[in-house]
Amino acid sequence: MAKTVLVKPIITEKAEGLSDSLNQYSFVVDRKANKIEIRKAVEEMYGVTVDSVNTMIMPAKTKNRTTRSGYVRGRVSSYKKAIITLTEGEEIDFFGDI
Q1: Which among 10, 17, 58, 72 is most buried, taking Cβ atoms within 10 Å?
Q2: Measured distance CA(42)–CA(5) in Å, rounded
């Protein structure tokens, strides 16, 4: 059973700004994946050449929400994030032909 390295792309305003200005793309990745495995997974899945990989572990956060019955307290679990820099002239199109 092969482990899935890339979980999902991160599509936020900040991530879109990085991709527009610096040719960097953000992904949620498996906690145990290293930079070499992440590079190979992105190159294989999207057919691009990766220049560099930066990883970080985002900490868990507690969130509070107010409802009719009072406060609802919850947690957002931690995850590992990878920021991929592609070589000049390459790009990843997440949206396809929408």
Answers
A1: 10
A2: 9
